[in-house]
Amino acid sequence: MSILGQSHVRTIAVASGKGGIGKTNVVANLAIALQKQGRKVLILDADLGLSNIDVLLHLAPRYNIQHVLEGDMKLKDIMVEGPYGIKILPATSGVQEMTALDEFQRLRFLEEFESLEEDINVLLIDTAAGISENVAFFCIAAQEIIIVTSPQPTAITDAYALIKVLYTRYQEKSLSVLVNSATDETEAKEVFNRLFKTVEQFLHISLDYLGFIPFDDAVTKSVMKQRAFVDAFPDCKAAKKITELAEKLLSRSRIRVKGSLQFFIGNLLKSSSAELEKK
User: Fold this and answer.
1) Short-list 220, 197, 93, 212, CA closest to 146
2) Average pLDDT, the chain
3) 176 has a pLDDT exceeding 70
4) How many independent structural domains does the chain possess?
5) Which range marks the domain in which residue 41 is found?
6) For the domain that residue 188 is a member of, what is the CATH number?
7) Of 43, 140, 204, 264, which is most buried by a Cβ count within 10 Å?
8) Under a CB-based contact definition with an 8 Å cutoff, are residues 235 and 223 in contact?
9) Nearest to 57 by CA among 12, 25, 91
10) Sign of the alpha-carbon dihedral angle for 268, 271, 277, 279
């Protein structure tokens, strides 16, 4: 059965306004935490020009999404398996053309997703950092959007910029915020409150505080080992918080969810058509 026929599949886009704050690491570890709790997880590496998931998990995929968009492969042919059985659709790295998909490439991507047969419960979309059309393309198609930020002032500013684009251009109002690399919950909530007040004042929408991942030396050590910290150091502070995050997401499984995986594909098509009309 095509994954479009599975009404239970959740699609979650994870984005950040700024690069280098650990978004991809959050995605990789969240995928494993969800898998360890009995879910079947597929990661779509949607950072199409600067792939990192495979490097982070010490994988060496032979093929990637570029081969699919060029018509040489099917999505099922490029899929690789990671720790604990998570599945990954790897992107390419160092190919600038992939950072802005054209209409033909988007339609090709849609066709491939429609024909993909894979038994999954959660589709995690690791978008590129920033406010590009590719980022918006995947965010507005997903059922849920998680904005990852950090205590860095530039990260907060750039998170606001991304939220502003998603709201003003695409009318996206349902957004959750995860603070990464915070010293403790007090600092994390201070970061969230700064962002919340700015968004509430200038955009008149509310944000949902999803939680935080603490700064933890184990995270750096696991990156050097090319392993997920939830796997390499399961008892570390960051691993415990990512597990709590997975549990929280599962506990609100039907809260503010906009639709099924069919919704994801349908919105990909809508966003693609909308961008074409603007041109």
Assistant:
1) 212
2) 85
3) yes
4) 1
5) 3-278
6) 3.40.50.300
7) 43
8) no
9) 25
10) negative
